[in-house]
Amino acid sequence: MTIATANRNLISELESVLPAGSKSEPAVSKAWEQFIQTGLPGQKSEEYKYAPIARQLEKLPALKPSAGDVLLPTPLPQFLSGQTCNYIVFVDGRFSSAKLADKEVKVTTRTTEESHDAKDPFEWLNAAFSPSLTIITVEEGVALQHPIAIVYHSSGRGTLVNPRWTLQLLKGSKATVIEMCQPHAYELFQNKKSVIEAGEKASLEYLILQDGTPAQTEVNHTEVRCALSSYASCFTISLNSRFVRNNMKLVVDGSQVEAHLYGLYLPSGDSLIDNHTVVDHRQPESFSNEMYKGVMNDRSKGVFNGKIYVRPHAQKTNAFQSNRNILLSENATVNTKPQLEIWADDVKCSHGCTTGQLDEEALFYLRSRGIDKRSAYAMLLHAFVAETFKEMKMTQWKETIDGLVTSRLLKV
Asked: How far is residue 348's CA from residue 346's CA, in Å, rounded to a whole number?
């Protein structure tokens, strides 16, 4: 459904700022036509039922991309300070530069091809505004010595950015990847599309760190495809931003795959963090585990919608999903919907969700030991959320995440 208000027509606004001549490109033309046909999600959209993205976009300044390329801004995010990484930098949604520490990492760009499996309107929007695709390749059989850091910067000259990239882990390769935005104080809508292809016997540890500002609105589409005997462990840590929608899709496309999805969301104020996940088992004899936890404070809102598909051919699949939430305020809300769709009969699958408040008896116990109320709250909450990142193998990242989370929890 196309969204238009008495003051603003977002579709017309977006069409007016499409790059000049881009509609003559088949991929862009197809993407824009599909976006128009799908329309922005309205109130009756089941997928965006609890995330009123159109109303959020109406609050932003005129939606327009920046014009022209800009140089790499400095400094790099504090989270990566002092670390040697393979830096892939996007500025205003466009590939800007690559500073590579490992010679086995290659970065190329090519014209974006037509997308045939996109369903979400924002995937089509990304394709319409992203004429080029950045491809990152890790050579076969290589275990990278240094992480790959994908960093997004904004020059402040536009309010609409659409980064688009693909990471290819060739057979037997191993990589650790972090993706994050450089915080900024001006209004911005980032609409990202990324694909990670873990080849046969490849290994991936992937961290998405969302620690932005109340000025940021994000829609992120991430797809991880796992081939035969590959391993993937993905962490989505959402600490800040006004509005975040994460679409995480894990495709188990080979046997003997082990895959994990971990998520942590800590909204506060009036912010909303919405996680939609899909785990699609297409081949037999694989394992997936999914754990998302949220702590909602003030008037904030959390959303979790998790789907597990087990296709008829995917016998002997083990798939587990868990979502647990704590509400710290009477005005905070969470909407959670775990789902299983199983077409195979020789499987082990389970899902569950809980929503509650802090254990008052445990809080009283800590207070009776001389611990002040704020510290006691933080200790209990930390014990609750730490499970979502304790399996992180990159020790330095895990310690930094732990510090960021602890600092945030001490403010509740």
From this structure: 7
CB < 8 Å & 24+ apart, contacts of 112-118: 112/27, 112/28, 112/164, 113/27, 114/26, 114/27, 114/30, 114/31, 115/27, 115/31, 118/31, 118/34
Q: What is the pLDDT of residue 155?
A: 84
Local confidence band at 217 (pLDDT 50, 70, 90 cut-offs):
very high
pLDDT digits (tens, 9 = 90+) for 41-97: 987 888 999 999 999 999 888 898 887 665 555 567 788 888 899 999 999 999 999
Which H helix or E strand runs over 368? Answer: helix 360-368
First to last CA, the chain: 38
In a domain, residue 5? The reply is no
Task: Name the residue range of residue 380's domain.
Answer: 359-412
**Across-strand partners of 352?**
322
Note whether 181 and 72 are within 8 A (CB). no
Shared domain for 222 and 369, answered yes or no, is: no
